[in-house]
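Task: encode each sequence below as structure tokens.

Item 1
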Amino acid sequence: MAKQPQGYKIFVTVGSRNYQFNRLFVKLDELFEQGILDGELFAQIGTSTYVPKHYQYKDFISQDEFLEKIQWADLVVSHGASGSIMKALNAGKKVLAVTRLAKYNEHINDHQIQNNEAFASNGYVLAVYDMDDLGKSFSLFFEGKDNTRAWENKDPLAIIRAIENFIEEQDKK
């Protein structure tokens, strides 16, 4: 797998809701230990209880710092929340969207699966549903093979309509 290029900056955000996402932060440390990640990474870890070993983090950051970190980053890693994803896309950033799952007490249900599927099916994010795929997903970005495209629509309701349309189509199947 490809390694993080020199000077490549990654911002990880999991929002401020009262749900941990320890699985993600443990995996990020594993990827550092495997040498896949080997550079600048800053994580906003929210209410997660896992303490990262190989990268900088804060529990919570201000809205201004959030926007600064998005501008700073080459790649934004987000949980499957449409607000965080849209802020990164509107800033012209590449997005890796990692899905929180209810079975790990990361959220109350699995709605982030549908959010990430909707964004990914339109080519705006690379979605990760299984933590074992995270390293391969980073490598796709590092090699320029992620096949995501820039978000060009600045209409804040456009993505909501796209997600609603995707969910309606899934319900018909």
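Item 2
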Amino acid sequence: MNLLPPCPLCKSTYTYEMDELLVCPECGHEWSLQTEVAEEEGFVVKDANGHILANGDTVITIKNLPVKGASQSIKAGTKVKNIRLVDSDHNIDCKIDGFGAMALKSEFVKKV
């Protein structure tokens, strides 16, 4: 028999698989098995939509981001390639054309 992890919200042991997701019949919570594996590894960074980010991913900014010391801001929809994840307040290090090296918060980007 295949043992599935309990629900992360209500700790119910009656979880089941539905396509690529794990589902809890008691509270209705759905989560990905990939999320479960990544959280066991420790450091997890998620984008604004809840997708797990990894080093080398490409992301897009979802809102205009003001840049300290610059006269212009990073526009919404700016594509940022080859990100590097770090364990700090601004958890994405990257280079943005026209701005150079930059640190971004993951809640202001979405994975492409």
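Check on item 2: The first strand starts at residue 16 and ends at 18. Strands lie at 16-18, 21-23, 30-32, 59-61, 79-80, 84-85, 92-96, 100-104, 109-111.
End of task.
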